[in-house]
Amino acid sequence: MAKDGGGAQVCPGNQVAAGIQETPCSLEDDEVFLSAEAPAPPRPSAAPADPFRHCSVDELYELLETLGSGHFGVVRRCRERSTGVSYAAKSVKMRKRKGSRLGLDREQVEREVCILQQLQHPNIMRLHDVFSNKAEMVLILELIQGGELFDFIAKKELLSEDEAIEFLQQILHGLAYVHSRRIAHFDLKPENIMLLQKDVPNPRIKIIDFGLAQKLEEGVAYKSLCGTPQYIAPEVINYEPLSTATDMWSIGVITYILLSGMSPFQGETDEETLSNVVSGNYEFEEKYFSQTSEMAKDFIQKLLVKEPRERMTAAQCLLHPWIKPLTRKQAVNRSRSSINMENFRKFNARRKWKLSYNMVSACNRLCRLRLLCQQTTEEERDCESDQEDEPSSPVVLLRRRRSICS
């Protein structure tokens, strides 16, 4: 990992180009790319020191059962041979060449590794080790076994605002730490808020997936066009400079959903959702917020603000009276309010159904690509079957990446 002249760590793929950082991103099915013109990959000004091991993972870890799989990799439980401690081994396939749609961009994974190596907090997923070869990278991560927070909450009969705040406090503590290191997550959503364990008295929150995270540089404007429609801030859609305040908008959306089971900006299509986000108009419908305290609504209103500089920071959120009551009356009002559990369970069921639907769709697409690939000769395959003959228009890209969380 390279360091600049002042001793600060510099992440690969996070360099300055004419005063603006523009980082290309690899999209999941719930994310959209909002422009036809992808920014050129940044070029590091100096070759960073190699932070990866280049030996075989099997030399140091025993690879065990598969825990999950995605488009570009597999997660398996593993055991460190020297200590016997269990971790999660995330194997990620690398793109063979620029323009490929199979695998992830190496610079993107290196940037994520660089960021995770800087983060040591109880509410942030920890990176233990990294291996790299030409075909793949293997990240040895903290073993997180409690599942998604939203799934855990959906199984409860009742949940008071007090109980919800205990989880939200942990998210805010983790985020305040990340932001204090001048790092923004840029992909906060229910799927990326997990529990370390669930069958314990006080489950610990873990924020995961720093694939879109960015180290923000002083005096340098960073712009990105990636994200999940109903959780991204207006400045993302408008292609304006982003900041840690962009994460705080997402916290506002997540809190709104948590309390009501409704999404403040969700439309019938991605285009409608994005339009709703840009307008910034939302309301607290009585039928969904009848059990919600006024302090909770005030908390959300101070986050879902179009002007980023006017949003509360994570540190300020922790001092808001809804999170930290100033009087006994505020504490009593909070304890008497509750989450709309019936509606929340419906929202979570729709969200999980669409996750499954999009995974099946993705698998079908990959199968079709492989079939096409098998029909070509080795010479014809030299340019890879995952590349398109013609660039896609913004509308096509938008439709291809439908949100999975309506």
From TrEMBL:
Bias kind Acidic residues: ranges: 382-391
SMART domains registered for this protein in UniProt: S_TKc
Cofactors required: Mg(2+)
Keywords: Apoptosis, ATP-binding, Kinase, Nucleotide-binding, Phosphoprotein, Serine/threonine-protein kinase, Transferase
InterPro entries given in the database record: Kinase-like_dom_sf, Prot_kinase_dom, Protein_kinase_ATP_BS, Ser/Thr_kinase_AS
A Pfam family assignment: Pkinase
Catalytic activity as recorded in UniProt: L-threonyl-[protein] + ATP = O-phospho-L-threonyl-[protein] + ADP + H(+); L-seryl-[protein] + ATP = O-phospho-L-seryl-[protein] + ADP + H(+)
Gene Ontology terms: cellular component: cytoplasm; nucleus
Region (Disordered): 382-406
Superkingdom: Eukaryota
Residues of the Protein kinase domain: 61-323
GO MF term set: ATP binding; protein serine/threonine kinase activity
The enzyme's E.C. designation: 2.7.11.1
Amino-acid positions noted as binding ATP in the UniProt annotation, renumbered to this chain: 90
Zinc-finger among keywords: no
Gene Ontology process terms (BP): apoptotic process; intracellular signal transduction; positive regulation of apoptotic process
Similarity comment text for this entry: Belongs to the protein kinase superfamily. CAMK Ser/Thr protein kinase family. DAP kinase subfamily.
Name of the protein in its database record: non-specific serine/threonine protein kinase
